[in-house]
């Protein structure tokens, strides 16, 4: 989705997290354009671990996200792909228009990094580590069934009240409620965040103090 699609769809939002699969190449452009309409972007990425588990990582700055994203891209197992079959990996230019096609690596690939390695790397960047849609396809519990050792998860992403209950029974207490939007019609508000400012610090505090309230419409 190009930035103009975002601008057409997201009304009355304060924040949006951009978490493309295994890449942070578009965050800087989107952050600049959305800032013009007073929407703050939380820089992020959705990494596919060696175990085929999807993990959301959220960063304080675009620069940290981009550096982390470069490391992840270099770790992707599948280097070549057929864009006619799998889709074109578009990178936007500074104006928000289609700039170039990323020909390698394939961003739908798994990383060669394990969950533990991704966790340790994320903490070097003071980032938030949040397993995505844990009870669904490529989710932590679906794929592994357990939490790896030596990991302190900041929160988990869930999709409904039943998933919250199951998560709490497993010992998880902090939650995020993302849309997991891959298409324009999925760009809908997913949660309300009780925060004083639109900053990463306040975003993090709201998660830990459980002041992120779901909007169950997806």
What tags apply to this protein structure?
218 residues, alpha/beta, two-stranded antiparallel sheet, 10 strands, 18% strand, globular
Shape: globular
**Which percent range fits the helix content?**
25-40%
Please count the beta strands (DSSP E, at least 2 residues each): 10
Count of helices? 8
Distance from N terminus to C terminus (CA atoms, Å) equals 19 Å
Structural class: alpha/beta
Rg is: 17 Å
**In this structure, how is the largest beta sheet organized?**
4 strands, mixed
In short:
Strand 1 (15-18), helix 2 (27-35) and strand 2 form a beta-alpha-beta unit.
Describe the 3D structure.
- It is a single chain.
- With 218 residues, the protein is of the alpha/beta class.
- The chain contains 8 helices and 10 strands.
- It has helices spanning 3-9, 27-35, 62-75, 83-86, 115-124, 140-143, 161-169, 200-208, and strands at 15-18, 40-48, 54-58, 90-92, 98-101, 128-131, 156-157, 175-176, 191-193, 212-214.
- The strands form 4 sheets. Strands 1-2-3-6 form a 4-stranded mixed sheet.
- A hairpin with a 5-residue loop joins β2 (40-48) and β3.
- The longest helix has 14 residues, at 62-75.
- The radius of gyration is 17 Å and the shape is globular.
- It starts with a helix and ends with a strand.
């Amino acid at each position: 989705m190009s930035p103009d699609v975002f601008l057409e769809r997201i009304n009355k939002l304060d924040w949006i997290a951009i978490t493309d699969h295994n890449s942070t190449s578009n965050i800087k452009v989107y952050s600049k354009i959305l800032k013009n309409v007073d929407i703050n972007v939380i820089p992020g990425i959705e990494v596919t671990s060696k175990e085929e588990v999807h993990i959301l990582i959220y960063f304080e700055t675009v620069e940290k996200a981009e550096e982390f994203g470069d490391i992840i891209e270099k770790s992707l197992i599948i280097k070549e792909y057929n864009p006619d079959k799998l889709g074109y990996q578009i990178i936007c230019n500074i104006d928000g228009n289609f700039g170039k096609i990323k020909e390698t690596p394939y961003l739908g690939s798994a990383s060669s990094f394990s969950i533990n390695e991704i966790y340790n790397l994320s903490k070097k960047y003071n980032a938030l580590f949040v397993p995505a849609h844990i009870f669904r396809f490529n989710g932590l519990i679906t794929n592994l069934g357990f939490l790896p050792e030596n990991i302190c998860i900041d929160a988990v992403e869930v999709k409904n009240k039943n998933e919250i209950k199951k998560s709490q029974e497993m010992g998880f207490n902090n939650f995020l409620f993302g849309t997991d939007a891959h298409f324009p019609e999925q760009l809908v508000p997913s949660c309300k965040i009780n925060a004083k400012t639109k900053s990463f610090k306040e975003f993090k505090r709201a998660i830990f103090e459980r002041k992120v309230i779901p909007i169950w419409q997806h």
